């Protein structure tokens, strides 16, 4: 087995040496058209020039460099160049709240700040009065008063460059920040060695992803999740296709023909919703045929998962059903081997529906405080509803109260610039994840809810919101579902409605009755004390920009409850006055 270098910079240079002309990054020009390819040797040469320019601007080893760019090759050029110059990368999300951005800048004190447009740089300058050098990436912008244009730095061709800085394995490579879903984001510093350990652990799980594979870079690079996936591609010699506009992703996938695809639960929920909506628009005979084919596919896939033989009629019709469903599968291209979902749980019914269609979605699990993903399902070893078996290097333990603990080389050692020991680390070096979980007899991990999210009603019943929300999101016109009810008599549900739900354009008596019936049906399998006692419905979606979702599209529950506070109070008041057969429904903006 080949021994790989233990710094990100050395791995880039090794890839450039081995596959100089092979495509590394592919992107489409803003005007559209054919995909443009950048080879590994060109990437490495660009990184070296940019690292030299960063050093000339005053970046010294250990200095922080903050990057707030869209998902594009320039992000990766700046990322690798900062590391090659000995810098520490801090990703900034343009959609993050001003308070979070100000906190991150104040804590990390970057030497250089890179933003897409001049107004982005002005925004960051207004949030933090530090003496950072500004770099603007937009080709049409003017150079900032104290800084440069990225295009000028990329175009530089110095006749001689000094010997580049050589990062060491224990040098800090990046500072990432927790999502801030329950408070102010906290910084976590990770070394080159820790990040390469994470990359190697993922590569070991998927031996079929190798040189020439196609991956899609579309998630925000401010988050370490997508950066690690790009480093997996670097280590494998895979081609990374950059899609900077998420709303163009589905349109681009047939052109990209990915070998694997990695997304977050929200993407898969919307993808399924879109497919179902499109099928329902077809003429009735075609709709019946497609739905029947999908049902046969689900029955066949269920038999495969259970290790049994499908009924004879299913085996007989399955080749025909696959042929009928092929047009839907081509949405993700003809060469897709599997998909991966991370950052939050996907409901098993959705995994089963995709499997019946012919797409295998494998769930993984990790948290910000451990750079090595903790568990993952594999192509030849998966269970829907489980998040799989531990990755190499992770030692898992279940505490007496059911909380998951983990120890390993990827676990952080404390929050950035916080002198007090982290409360989540115990004396044995185990990280308390904050997740309730169980390990089955085969070593698979099953998550059972966040400790911080589970609440008690005033009657003393413990309620986990995720199963309620998962059930409610099966309703085709529900965009988001949020269950609340801490210290209240019963839980209530906040539902944001899909913008395409034209049949609910007016919340009249008929629409209210339909929503109440659909909610009752969706929650029928839950314990009675978890059934929502009232509903709040809104047509305005939850968003990252309004602080209701994290960059990974997780719920920021406190902010959501704040937005709907008046409706929550009214819902509990109305439910006390309503007849027991009536489910109060409050409409809010």
UniProtKB/TrEMBL annotation:
GO cellular component terms?
Answer: membrane
Indicate the transmembrane segments per the record: none
Alphabetized SUPFAM superfamilies for the sequence = Acetyl-CoA synthetase-like
User: Signal peptide span per the entry?
Assistant: none
Identify the Pfam families for this entry.
AMP-binding, AMP-binding_C_3
Keywords carried by this UniProt record:
ATP-binding, Ligase, Nucleotide-binding
Ranges for domain AMP-dependent synthetase/ligase = 13-416
Give GO MF terms, alphabetically.
Answer: ATP binding; long-chain fatty acid-CoA ligase activity
Gene3D superfamilies listed in its UniProt record: 3.30.300.30, N-terminal domain of ligase-like
Q: Which InterPro entries has this protein been placed in?
A: AMP-bd_C_sf, AMP-binding_CS, AMP-dep_synth/lig_dom, ANL_N_sf
Question: In its keyword annotation, does this UniProt entry include ATP-binding?
Answer: yes
Q: Which reaction is catalysed here?
A: a long-chain fatty acid + ATP + CoA = a long-chain fatty acyl-CoA + AMP + diphosphate
Record's protein name: Putative long chain fatty acid CoA ligase
Q: Which organism is it from?
A: Thauera linaloolentis (strain DSM 12138 / JCM 21573 / CCUG 41526 / CIP 105981 / IAM 15112 / NBRC 102519 / 47Lol)
């Amino acid at each position: 087995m080949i021994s790989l270098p233990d710094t990100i910079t050395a791995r880039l240079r090794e890839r450039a040496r081995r596959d100089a002309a092979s495509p590394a990054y592919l992107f489409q020009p803003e005007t559209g058209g054919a995909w443009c390819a950048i080879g590994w040797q060109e990437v490495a040469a660009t990184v070296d020039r940019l690292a030299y320019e960063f050093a000339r601007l005053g970046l010294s080893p250990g200095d922080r460099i903050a990057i707030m760019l869209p998902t594009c090759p320039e992000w990766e050029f700046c990322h690798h160049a900062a590391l090659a110059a000995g810098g520490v990368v801090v990703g900034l999300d343009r959609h993050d709240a001003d308070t979070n951005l100000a906190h991150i800048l104040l804590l990390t004190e970057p030497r250089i700040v890179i933003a897409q447009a001049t107004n982005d740089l002005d925004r960051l300058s207004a949030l933090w009065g530090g003496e950072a050098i500004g770099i603007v990436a937009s080709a049409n912008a003017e150079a900032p008063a104290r800084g440069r244009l990225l295009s000028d730095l990329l175009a530089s061709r110095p006749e001689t460059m000094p010997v580049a800085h050589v990062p060491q394995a224990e040098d800090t490579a990046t500072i990432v920040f927790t999502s801030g879903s329950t408070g102010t984001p906290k910084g976590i510093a990770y070394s080159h060695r820790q990040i390469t350990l994470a990359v190697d652990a993922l590569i070991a799980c998927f031996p079929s992803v190798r040189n020439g594979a196609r991956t899609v870079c579309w998630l925000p690079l401010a988050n370490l999740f997508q950066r690690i996936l790009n480093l997996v591609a670097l280590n494998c010699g895979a081609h990374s296709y950059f899609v900077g506009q998420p709303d163009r992703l589905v349109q681009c996938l047939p052109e990209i023909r990915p070998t694997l695809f990695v997304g977050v639960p929200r993407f898969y929920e919307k993808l399924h919703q879109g497919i179902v909506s499109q099928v329902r628009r077809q003429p009735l005979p075609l709709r019946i045929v497609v739905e029947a084919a999908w049902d046969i596919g689900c029955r066949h896939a269920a038999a495969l998962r259970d290790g049994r033989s499908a009924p004879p009629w299913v085996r007989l019709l399955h080749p025909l059903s696959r042929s009928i469903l092929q047009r839907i599968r081509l949405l993700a291209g003809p060469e897709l081997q599997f998909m991966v979902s991370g950052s939050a749980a996907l409901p098993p019914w959705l995994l089963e529906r995709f499997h019946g269609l012919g797409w295998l979605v494998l769930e993984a699990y990790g948290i910000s405080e451990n750079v090595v993903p903790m568990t993952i399902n594999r192509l030849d070893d998966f269970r829907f509803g489980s998040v799989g078996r531990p990755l190499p290097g992770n030692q898992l333990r279940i505490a007496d109260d059911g909380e998951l603990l983990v120890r390993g080389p990827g676990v952080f050692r404390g929050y950035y610039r916080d002198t007090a020991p982290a409360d989540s680390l115990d004396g044995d070096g185990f990280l308390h994840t904050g997740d309730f979980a169980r390990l089955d007899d085969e070593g698979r991990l099953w998550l059972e809810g966040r400790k911080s999210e589970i609440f008690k009603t005033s009657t003393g019943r413990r309620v986990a919101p995720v199963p309620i929300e998962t059930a409610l999101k099966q309703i085709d016109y529900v965009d988001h579902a949020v269950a609340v009810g801490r210290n209240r008599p019963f839980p209530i549900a906040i539902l944001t409605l899909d913008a395409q739900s034209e049949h609910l354009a007016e919340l009249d008596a008929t629409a209210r009755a339909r929503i109440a019936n659909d909610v009752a049906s969706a929650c029928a399998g839950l314990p009675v004390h978890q059934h929502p006692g009232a509903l709040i419905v809104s047509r305005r979606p939850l968003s990252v920009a309004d602080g209701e979702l994290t960059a990974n599209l997780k719920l920021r529950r406190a902010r959501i409850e704040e937005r709907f506070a008046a409706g929550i109070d009214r819902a509990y008041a109305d439910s006390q006055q309503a007849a027991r057969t009536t489910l109060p429904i409050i409409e809010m903006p």
